[in-house]
Amino acid sequence: MRYFYFLIAIFVFTSCEDVVELPLTEGPTRLVIDANINWEKGTAGSEQVIRLTKTVGFYETEIPPANGAQVVIKNSNSDEFEFFEDGTTGLYKTLNFVPVIGETYTLEITYEGKTFTASETLKPITNIKGVRQKVENIFGRDVIRVDFDYTDPINQENYYLGEFSSNAYLLNVYRTWSDEIINGNDDSVFEIDENLEKGKELTLRFYGVSEAYHNYIALLLQQIESNGPFATPPSELKGNCVNTNHPDDPDKKPLGYFRLSEFVTETYIIE
Asked: Model-level pTM?
């Protein structure tokens, strides 16, 4: 009898290796707008890139670019910054963007006879004052923690995005938070990971973002981190881009976000 159960187990687990493709109903193709205008503090910020792609079916492995669009950003003075596609890559570039902290910009995209728009304000970022490393004991194991120190400006409402990259990681790590509790005080954004070892490089890109984008990316990270076999299916996140031809049709609304941020970069070598 024990041998019989063993054979059943082998059959079940072997069967689990078969790839099953379920027939899925595909929705209409939609435009995906990856419009992150990032101005590194202390630079001209004139070179910027916007990526346009199209949605594909669940089992597709390649993401098609959205070719032939007209892309322009306007400031409050109606100055226009045109973006031109690099070949057929779906990457639209400009060399003459003028970033101004606190300025409101409007993105306009014309694609396949439809117009898509979004507006955002360019947000500032404070400097990183220093970097500290220490060891913390997590569940009986010593793990390296690295703190990047900054001072939150007291006379403004701030929202932050931290992006960590490292040659110890396969993927970048993102965090977002506000200054609701730490307004005007010294604070730090830190990374703690068992893969951080001596000689590894850890880089922080520290962005100032709007409250709306903070809420958007917080929901996105929550959906990613809560994924699992018993997780609630993720809901569609609503970006700030609008299809002006069909503003009330959810099937024709573009995906993605238009964001403008000043940022600083700090790289630290683990000791």
From this structure: 0.85
